[in-house]
Give the backbone structure.
Amino acid sequence: ANFNGFIKNGLDSSTLINLIVAFDSAFQEYKKKGFTFPPNLFFYHEISWREAIGVLINQHKFTKEEAKDSLNKLIEQFNLQRIIRDEVTDEPFERQVEEANKRIIAKYNNPKLKIGDNDIIIIGGFLRNKINFIHSGDDAFLKTCEELGINTVPLPERDIEKEKQIKKWMKKGRT
């Protein structure tokens, strides 16, 4: 669908996870950050589903059911639209993403800025769907999007610190 006059926001896997863990999927908390609905529309890539569920289970100790329920709640509250990969259509976009990432690695002379195959697919889908803003907590992901001319919105430092604190608490609980 063509959404003229709307702002299309793409949420990467780290943002989905952060919203679930740090905010318990509370849309009001995210709304406080300056987002209103509409004109904002929110999108996620289908690949993020598996990634988010896996991280919620393995790193945040959610049960499989809790992880699925939390992600479904977030999708419902944000009215998240799913981007589905079409290998034929997405292939040229994914190639652009790969090339942009290579330029970023060379520009910063930092091999740690290499993004993974799933990130290439996610950004390629966002590129194909003409997403206006990408929300992420991953520096390499953000730099690659910027190289492609996509506006980025890093997770606020306060939220990243909150996420780190939650991870620290969870590690203490396991020992």
